[in-house]
Amino acid sequence: MKKIVSIVAGVLLSFSLFAEGSKEYVKQEINANDRCLPTFYESILKKWEFSMGWKDGNPKKWKKAGLEKARELIIQNEDKTPFDMVVIAEEQREGYKAQKVVFNISAESRVLAYLLIPDGAKKAPAALMLHDHGSKFTIGKEKMVKPFGDTEEDAKKLAEAENWAARYFGERFVGDEMAKKGYVVLSFDALGWGDRSVDGFKTGSQQSLGSNLFNMGTSFAGIIAQEDCRAAKFLASLPQVDKKKVACVGFSMGGFRSWQLAALSDDITAGVAVCWFGTMKGHIKIGDGQLKGNSAFSMLHPTIAKFLDYPDVAGLAAPKPMYFIGGTDDAVNPTEGTKEAYEIVHKIWKANKAEDKLKTELIEGGEHAYLPEQQDSSFAWLAEQFK
Q1: Most exposed: 105, 158, 244, 246, by fewest CB within 10 Å?
Q2: 205-215 and 220-237 helices cross at what angle (nearest 10)?
């Protein structure tokens, strides 16, 4: 009772101060000229309630309501455009075939993708490879699958892709490694990367793309999410694929896309998310990369913070098998936020009586990379889920 009286008194005092017509006013209300926040941002964070976030109760009812809201805010339009796939080139590799295929990712966009098919594949497991951001827009699908072709442009992309693989993946192409293990693999460019970009597109270019899409009633992140769902459905529809064994695997922004897709898509049956997980509050920290804007547009769904935190969205994937990998020295993902997010998803999988299907790993000293040791660990885990 005393606490309530104190709060009411404080509110009344605030009103009385304003009523007195104070001559004081703010003379600065933005905290910096880069990675800008309003000086009252902490007050905004305190108001966050995530009204539809996990709070115990019936997990099936929670998932039904949460998925409805998440799909409403993230997937703006239902798209049932026929895929109409055409193979335009192929190359035989050791134990599998690499194809360049073209298909309709949406009613607006017909895209080029890499499809890897193990020799003799018949109802094989499949993996949708979700590439990172990296402010590297000249390649996208090529970050996950080794490119091929005879043109000068093909050679340039191969060199860029090999440099990327050396930097983040221990000189491996993760998609090719999965094909060697018997997976049908698909990798495509998100809007703004690779064949879907333009000369000179750079980090700052995303601001106009993101804001213009907002003005059109959609979003950069929403288009990426919807197309990921479409790509998952396309992959699951292929005759070589076992529909019950379709995984999504992503690194960095691709890690964000992976847990998001596992939640939103009924075609995905398991997921591996590497080096992008945490809480929303965990990323609203002075100096955090997400505060730069620009790149954040690719993962920004307006108003979703009123309802669901990142781990709540990821938790909508339960009870599907999910494997999260992070590192304590990952400059992109604050460790405290990652730990908090892990705690939340463990509660959700436990409520679904499926905690054995959830694996979370925070590697001591681990940096922002998906190295061979973690790749092999995730491949082994996925094989166990798909027995």
Answers
A1: 244
A2: 90
